[in-house]
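Running this now, will post back.
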Amino acid sequence: MIVLTLILALAGSVLSIDGSFLFIFISIFVLIFILNRTLFKPINQMLDERERLGAGRLGEAKQLLAQYEARLQQYEAKLSTARAEAYQFLEAQRRDAQAARQEVLAQVKTDTAAQIAAAKAEVAAQAATAKQTLETEARAMAATISTQILHRPVSAGGN
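Update: finished.
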C-alpha cells in the first residue's frame, strides 16, 4: 500500500492521500463492525437456527421412519405367525375330517358287507325252501301223472 501511495505521489496523480482517507478508512471499519453486529450476526444466527431446526426435524423424521420400519417388521412377523397358525389349524381340521370320512367309509363298508351277507343267507334259505317245495310238488305231480298214465296208484315217495 505504501508503495502504491509513493508511486501515485511521484506520478502527480489526481488522487492524493490526505486526512479524508483516514476518515473514510476508519468509517469503513466502523460500518463493518456495526453491520456485523446489527445485520450479519442476526442473519447468521437465524440461518444457523434454521439449519439446526432442519437437521432436528430431519433427525426426528429419520427416527419416526425407523420406528415405522420396526413396527412394520413386527406387524409382518405377527401376520406371518398368524398365517402359519391358520394353515396348521386348517391342516389339522382337514386331517380330522379325512379321518372321520375314513371311519364313516369303513363303517358303511362293514354295514354293507353285513347286509349283503344277510341278504345272501336269506336268498340261500329262500332258494333251499323253494327247492324243497318244488321237489315236493314235482314228486306229487309225478305221482299224479304216473297214476293217470299207468291207471294204477303210484306213491309220491318215489318207489
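The mean pLDDT is 84. More later if anyone needs it.
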